[in-house]
Amino acid sequence: MKTNPKTISVSELKKELLKNKNFKLEYESKLPESQIACQVIEARLKQNMSQVELANKIHSGQAVISRLESLNSKPSLSLLIKIAKALDTKINLSIG
């Protein structure tokens, strides 16, 4: 008999992962990318959209979304604008 895995929110997962010292150090070194990834994931999940569906909306491959969400890329502003439009949201940029 299969058991259902526990479902947790991205915020809960982040809180749990940050308890690990090594993860926290790596996370903080990639904080800007981490913040972008978390916001994209949260917006995508809020709309019940898969990585594939989001990729299709921006005329890209699922790997592009996967790399962004797993912190394996540094997304361009143009990519973030496409993603924001596809998720019917906006980008708020702040320097300083």
TrEMBL record:
InterPro entries: Cro/C1-type_HTH (IPR001387), Lambda_DNA-bd_dom_sf (IPR010982). SMART domains: HTH_XRE. Residues 40-94 form the HTH cro/C1-type domain. It holds the Pfam family HTH_3. Gene3D superfamilies: lambda repressor-like DNA-binding domains. GO terms for molecular function: DNA binding. This is HTH cro/C1-type domain-containing protein.
